[in-house]
Write a structure and sequence with these properties.
Rossmann fold; single chain; 7-stranded antiparallel sheet; alpha/beta; binds 6-O-phosphono-alpha-D-glucopyranose; globular; Glutamine Phosphoribosylpyrophosphate, subunit 1, domain 1; 8-stranded antiparallel sheet
Length: about 600
């Protein structure tokens, strides 16, 4: 979604803002803009990427030690120069950037129009800028801070905002409800951003704004309050992200880098949690919730997109090993359908960003109904880990490519660990199987390294499919969610239509689509469904479909049947999702690159969906 950056201090704000915007571009990117404050406020904004903005301001006055910048992912109003942020209030008193959605913007706008206001853009943000100004001008004695606070009191919806005032231009106001904001603390300076990525190169000390909090920030002073005007003590935390982790490090795209990082990301997910030597898996973050989880009648897993797919893998594994009934649901559906939630339910919320609006709302609902909520998140300090009763960080490191790769395998790793740990605690897994599973899991990073060595082969193979219009992905059991994830990856970055299906369901519909032009990716590693999947491959071949099979190393049966095979090392069935998804990620990556698509920033998508 939209990205916010801001700076107040003694340095030139422009380079800090523009670099910050580049780091945030992965969140959303149809237009960008900045405001620089140097006695007066200068605003530059345009449709397109941050590089377009850079060209646009190349010959302009870029001075100023205070400023704010924004990359936009359109919600209200099409992407164009006028709708880009910052927005300035009608009489020029306030400059605002905003992430989120103001749901009652229409009512507020109509009231403002009645009071003489007119609007240049179609955005909800301009409504907020004008509302602040209207309140301020009605009684200038109340001052800027109170005007912002009163305006926010009238807003329904979500926001992360930065506000600058013309008349008191030595401070910025930051406020948050539902949309993340982080403040970096430097020496006589402060940085603002929607996530920590633009801040880490300047300072590791940060303050995470909570919902309904606002910060009034001068270069040497930060005052934290609730929007009800209660003073708070800011809590400064140290973040543990290094700059290399958020740069491409020689790869053509972040996505490729992140695919190749998976062995080390999974090792980081294991660290301190899986011990072959002690024959033990322990997730410390679950400690406080374990008594509840162990007696849970049901686990409900919620998430969106790729995280939902990880949840589906979790369902198979938790039911198999922990023997607790599991339901998996899209957070966006769950939150709106009055679900039956009991106090002895455990809800597991999965999210890479920890900021997905639907997942956050679903968590709040589950908590209200008395369930125990556990988070599985990647971004440390994000909103979801702060909302949940207990949780496990995936520790995959920053994921910048919009299409999720290493975050998915790290999520699946955590869910696998969870299933095994609970299975053992509940007496469902015998000691020898437990050890065997720990060994299988520990061997995954090395096996992924073997698969990654086939990248060139997969690249060559993908060249055959550059012009495909459709793809089908088939898998069974715990590999069915992997088929869904493979199809999603292809759609997201290559814009080729793809469907994931349980292999056995193919005959109930998708089989009608198969002809000599239809590529069918079949995940067909050796497990209990193997023979049946071989029959499915035969069914596809009988209709002249093109079969790309993901097989266990040395499988000659399928090699003779399929058009193309990609081998993965032999492994225990439970860890097969972690291996088989890798070739699917590479396949979609290389197809998208060959089609000339913008892999890291696919059209219309955003990395962090902070609006519903
Ligand atoms: C967006 C991203 C997906 C991600 C989904 C859920 O759609 O593009 O890659 O899977 O949001 O995000 P989360 O951060 O909650 O995992």
């Amino acid at each position: 979604m939209c990205g916010i950056v801001g700076y107040i201090g003694n340095k030139d704000a422009y380079p800090i803002l523009i670099n910050g915007l580049k780091r945030l571009e992965y969140r959303g990117y149809d237009s960008a803009g900045i405001a620089l404050i140097n006695g007066e406020t200068r605003t530059y904004k345009c449709k397109g990427k941050v590089s377009d903005l850079e060209n646009f301001v190349a010959n302009q006055d870029k001075s100023g030690n205070i400023g704010m910048g924004h990359t936009r992912w359109a919600t209200h109003g099409e992407p164009n120069d006028v709708n880009a942020h910052p927005h300035i209030s009608l009489h020029g008193h306030f400059t605002v950037i905003h992430n989120g959605i103001i749901e009652n913007y229409d009512v507020l706008k109509r009231d403002l129009i009645k009071n003489g206001y007119s609007f240049k853009s179609e955005t909800d943000t301009e409504v907020l800028a004008n509302l602040i100004e209207y309140i301020y001008l009605k009684d200038e004695k109340i001052g800027v801070e109170t005007a912002v606070r009163l305006a926010l009191g009238k807003v329904i919806g979500a926001y992360g905002i930065l506000v600058a005032a013309k008349q008191e231009n030595n401070f910025l106001i930051a406020a948050r409800k539902g949309s993340p904001l982080v403040i970096g603390v430097g020496e006589g300076e402060y940085y603002f951003a929607s996530d920590a990525t633009p801040i880490v190169e300047h300072t590791k000390s940060v303050i995470y704004l909570d919902d309904d909090h606002m910060a009034i920030v001068e270069k040497n002073n930060l005052m934290l309050k609730t929007i009800h005007n209660d003073l708070l003590e800011p809590e400064v935390k140290q973040i543990d992200i290094n700059i290399e982790a958020i740069e491409k490090g020689g790869y053509d795209h972040f996505m490729l880098k992140e695919i190749f990082e998976q062995p080390s990301a999974i090792r980081d997910t294991f660290r301190g949690r899986v011990s072959e030597r002690h024959n033990r898996i322990y997730l410390g973050g679950l400690h406080t919730a374990l008594p509840k989880i162990n007696v849970a009648k049901r686990i409900i897993i919620i998430g969106c997109g790729t995280s939902w797919h990880a949840g589906l893998v979790g369902e198979y594994l938790l039911e198999e090993y922990a023997r607790i009934p599991v339901e998996v649901e899209y957070a966006s559906e769950f939150r709106y359908r009055n679900p039956i939630i009991n106090e002895d339910d455990v809800v597991i919320a999965i999210s890479q960003s920890g900021e997905t609006a639907d997942t956050l709302a679903a968590i709040k609902l589950a908590k209200e109904k008395g369930a125990t909520v556990v988070g599985v998140c990647n971004v440390v300090g994000s909103s979801i880990p702060r909302e949940t009763h207990a949780g496990v960080y995936t520790h995959a490191g920053p994921e910048i490519g919009v299409a999720s790769t290493k975050a998915f395998t790290a999520q699946v790793t955590v869910l696998t660990m969870m299933a095994l740990m609970l299975g053992r605690e509940r007496g469902n897994i015998k000691a020898d199987l437990y050890l065997q599973m720990i060994k299988a899991l520990s061997a995954v990073p090395e096996k992924i390294e073997v698969i990654l060595k086939q990248a060139d082969l997969i690249k060559e193979l993908s060249a055959q499919f550059t012009n495909a219009h459709n793809f089908i992905y088939l898998g069974r059991g715990v590999l069915f969610p992997v088929a869904l994830e493979g199809a999603l990856k292809l759609k997201e970055i290559s814009y080729i239509h793809a469907e994931g299906y349980p292999a056995a369901e193919m005959k109930h519909g998708p089989i009608a689509l198969i002809d000599e032009k239809m590529p069918v990716v079949v995940i067909a590693t050796k497990d209990k469904s193997y023979e049946k999947v071989v029959s499915n491959i035969q069914e596809v071949k009988a209709r002249k479909g093109i079969v790309i099979a993901i097989v266990t190393q040395g499988d000659h049966v399928i090699r003779n049947l399929a058009d193309y095979v990609i081998e993965v090392p032999d492994s225990h069935e439970a860890v097969a999702p972690l291996l088989t998804v890798i070739p699917l990620q590479l396949l979609s990556y290389y197809i998208a690159v060959a089609r000339g698509c913008n892999v890291d920033q696919p059209r219309n998508l955003a990395k962090s969906v902070t609006v519903e």
